[in-house]
Amino acid sequence: GNSVTQMEGPVTLSEEAFLTINCTYTATGYPSLFWYVQYPGEGLQLLLKATKADDKGSNKGFEATYRKETTSFHLEKGSVQVSDSAVYFCALSSYNNNDMRFGAGTRLTVKP
Amino acid sequence: EPEVTQTPSHQVTQMGQEVILRCVPISNHLYFYWYRQILGQKVEFLVSFYNNEISEKSEIFDDQFSVERPDGSNFTLKIRSTKLEDSAMYFCASSDNRGLGNQPQHFGDGTRLSIL
Questions:
Q1: A32 at the B interface (CB within 8 A)?
Q2: Does any CB of chain A come closer than 8 Å to the CB of residue B34?
Q3: How far does Cα A40 stand from its chain's mean position?
Q4: How large is the average pLDDT for residues A25-42?
Q5: What is the pLDDT of residues A60-99, one digit of tens each?
Q6: How does pLDDT run across B83-104, given as a tens digit for each residue?
Q7: Which burial class, exposed, middle or buried, applies to A30 when counting CB atoms under 10 A from its CB (0-12, 13-18, 19+)?
Q8: CA–CA separation, A99 vs B56, rounded Å?
Q9: Of B44, B101, B108, the CB nearest to A32
Q10: Alpha-carbon span B111 to A94, nearest angstrom
Q11: CA distance B104 to A46
């Protein structure tokens, strides 16, 4: 079945450091891929998405590229801020079904 | 920007009691979902709902669970006889995907359910 694996956390970085959170997936067909962010005490917010191979999703300085050859969708940001501290979830959904599969989440803490 | 709203934000219930979690999806969305997140664990799919019926459900969604869209705006999750292991954060989501998986789901802030 479809599944998502993302790097174990927690990740602690200093402000302005480079961020990578790895995500790989297993799916039949051509899934759509998403990154969601969960700030403390809040729900899941869509951060970015990509719906086909080689698409790059981007938002708020975050980027992720849909790599079909490596079945990956790694999240990157060139310079993190304290306000980026949150839990990040990689997720996928298939074209023909509606349940979204989430990775385990990676907690990011950015220190000033 | 329209958003999914969930009430209550925190529900405390005695084991064995029934609980109803409420959600108001985004008004023009057609698909509705419930997920749960046990503390410290991943977000797990429970059920999706379209055209007034369940379209998919996971193995977690057993006979103790039910969903309903009682009117044009609310979408509810009922747990008939709660167990300690039902303690979790429950998220409602909606999407305008008309069956296509490439549309994002929009999530509410969740209801924290605590079973005593």
A1: yes
A2: no
A3: 17
A4: 89
A5: 999 999 999 999 999 999 999 999 999 999 999 876 656 7
A6: 999 999 999 999 886 556 667 8
A7: middle
A8: 7
A9: B101
A10: 27
A11: 7
Cis status of the peptide bond prior to B104, with omega within 30 of 0 = no
Q: What is the 3-state secondary structure of B44-89?
A: EEEEEEECCEEEEECCCCCCCEEEECCCCCCEEEEECCCCHHHCEE
Residue in the block written with tokens 């839990």: A87
A6 contacts: CB under 8 Å, gap ≥ 6: A21, A22, A23, A24, A88, A89, A90, A103, A104, A105, A106
At B9, list the tokens: 């934000």
Residue type, B21: L
Strands A86-93 and B5-7: unpaired
